[in-house]
Amino acid sequence: MNVHMPASTTIAMLGTVLAGVALMSARTFWAHLQQERVRGSRSNDALPFLFTPPSEERSKNSIFQCKGAQGEQRQLSCVEVVGSFVLLLLVVVFGVFGHHARDCGSDLVGFAQALVPGSCTVPIIKAFSPDAFLYNLMSQTHIARIVMLICIVVPSLACSAVAVFYSIRLTMYEGYSIGTVAMVSAVAFGAGGFAGLIGIGGGMVFSPFFLFIGLDPATAVATSATCIIFTSSSTTFQFLLTDRIALSLGLIYGLVNVAASYIGTRLVHILNDRFGAKKFIISGIVCLGLLWSIGLTVYKALRMASGQEA
């Protein structure tokens, strides 16, 4: 969808999503502020969150436990960690191959049989397959349809299987309700889609949402940052291997972002250590960040409306 959607629609969707998430974040900030003013308490009981997080006691019996893994909460096993990145690799590989296969199939229409479009001989495909591999696949209509179907179904089924498996674990062993797991899964699906569609990154959605459902602010920020590893990596590698990234801008702003991320992480730790009970500070920072993003989006929309940008 990102390839075919008009720029104005992208900006409109971006502004709408940011506005909705900002309202959610503002509500959480106000709830935290009222808690500090009225009760001065660390308890979440008076806050109108959607659910109370489960107790700290978790099931310690992982299916494949790492040797020596200990702690109050159940830790990820070695197989789970490796499996996460294998799943990421699966999504990237099928996404990239599907993109180039679709372009190759489209360009073959109208070409003479003896000619091979450049989209059928892209370097990333030739590096791992014979020269005419993609051309031979996509030049046969029935095979081309099967290839495109496989590129969509395989990663979708793999991700769905993992989501269902851990949804069952969360409800049976971690103390989460079915409604909560369904809601978190829906938000995760939406955040991943928005990351690829309008480029907002999962953090813009995950952090306010985790705060909204009642997680501790420091935990919400850290969990959100972990989710971003997968949402950002998936879209970034697919865009990189389909020649859609301005590498000079990506490298320059990426280096700045690395420094800013380190500073932001240190700031969260400092705020949590010094003002651990005052959750409104971190939730307020999240809200300000969203408002800043909305301002930039509105500015971009106004420039496009006035004809200053194509």
Description:
The chain has 310 residues and is mainly α. Helices cover 69% and strands 0% of the residues. The protein has two domains: 6-54 and 177-310, no CATH class; 77-175. The chain is built from ten helices and no strands. The longest helix is centred in the middle third of the chain and has 33 residues, at 141-173. The chain starts with 6 loop residues before the first helix and ends in a 5-residue tail after the last helix. 21% of the residues are buried.
Question: Descriptors for this entry?
Answer:
310 residues, mainly alpha, 2 domains, 10 helices, globular
The first-to-last residue Cα distance is 19 Å
Morphology: globular
Helix content: 55-70%
Structural class: mainly alpha
* Largest pleated sheet: none
Whole-number tally of structural domains: 2
Order of helices and strands: HHHHHHHHHH
Mean pLDDT over all positions = 80
What percent strand?
A: under 5%
Number of helices: 10
Summarize the structure.
The chain is mainly alpha-helical and 310 residues long. The chain has helices at residues 7-38, 78-108, 123-126, 133-138, 141-173, 178-197, 203-212, 217-240, 247-274, 280-305.
Layout of SSEs?
Layout: H1 7-38, H2 78-108, H3 123-126, H4 133-138, H5 141-173, H6 178-197, H7 203-212, H8 217-240, H9 247-274, H10 280-305
